[in-house]
What does this fold into?
Amino acid sequence: FWFLAAQTVELCVFWVEGAIYFYQAKHPFILWMSHYPMMFYGMCMLTMFVAMVVSLTFTHAFLAMANLTTWEVMSWHRISYLRGLESDGKRSPFS
It folds into this structure.
């Protein structure tokens, strides 16, 4: 969880740095894109990475608060000690 939180902060810092560079360039967007295509594609990829890492961070924060593991949530019906319990995925049998 902490690794994901640190990666979220790092990716957001890099994205903000790219956005600041874009806004300080004082060029229209199309001209900026034609002069710095790799920067544009990098920002697009960074946006996707930020979305994925943020969703993973929130998912694992929820799992930690619910006292569940990823295995318990994804394979509730395969785990022998959980078979008789309701599989709502919101509570652990150990809490």
